[in-house]
Amino acid sequence: xxxxxxxxxxxxxxxxxxxxxxxxxxxxxxxxxxxxxxxxxxxxxxxxxxxxxxxxxxxxxxxxxxxxxxxxxxxxxxxxxxxxxxxxxxxxxxxxxxxxxxxxxxxxxxxxxxxxxxxxxxxxxxxxxxxxxxxxxxxxxxxxxxxxxxxxxxxxxxxxxxxxxxxxxxxxxxxxxxxxxxxxxxxxxxxxxxxxxxxxxxxxxxxxxxxxxxxxxxxxxxxxxxxxxxxxxxxxxxxxxxxxxxxxxxxxxxxxxxxxxxxxxxxxxxxxxxxxxxxxxxxxxxxxxxxxxxxxxxxxxxxxxxxxxxxxxxxxxxxxxxxxx
Length: 325
Hints:
The protein is an all-beta fold. Helices cover 1% and strands 45% of the residues. Strand 1 (30-31) and strand 2 form a beta hairpin.
């Protein structure tokens, strides 16, 4: 991060943790007739305002919100829908408001620290319709979940690209499906890496420059992962996550990297005690590209995974090769 090494994941009890499954409307995802998500009977829905995107424009907006839940919830599933023109979306939860709820803004819009508020990557989607279902059994008959506090603060980061010759109006929708009230769950948490050392030299369309960044993160083998993926911007040509010499995840598609998932026993544990992540880049632009939030002008190198148990309710951040939390 350009201006701060202090991006810290906060505890899930403060901004995104875990608990069980809930009664909900038909769990069918997108409403084909309406072209939008059906709100869950137990949980909450967030819909960003429509925004006009002019032809050829690439831009990132953030929509800041308070979740509508009046009690703490344990989330069992996330589901999202993006209208045409939306490239990807990321849900961040925050311990306090970064901007006034209801605000759409291009500032304070990402993972870098803003004042005393630190965002926690919680869910992401690169497809128009996507979902993430938490494991129903931790191996001991207890479901896995993420806790969202009543009136939770957060924001949706939305990357838009209008490749048409007409103005489009785009928005995103997010559903959080919750377990029943009082259900007991095994808490889950995010494990996120972030690399501050990206500095891609200028290149050209015919002779792009090349560069690689990587990190090694200490990790205990008692953590059980159920999802692992990576995140870069458009100069990324290859990413990998390894457990010692074992490849855990590998992708050559920055737009749709996919993910490794383990939805039932055995979940994945890093038996080597090290998580190694790497991102390879080709820069066809005639300017230097460094670490930053903008998908249009900057780059990222992130491994993003979700694991349990987390007795303290907190996630882990590995900055470069240093475990900060």
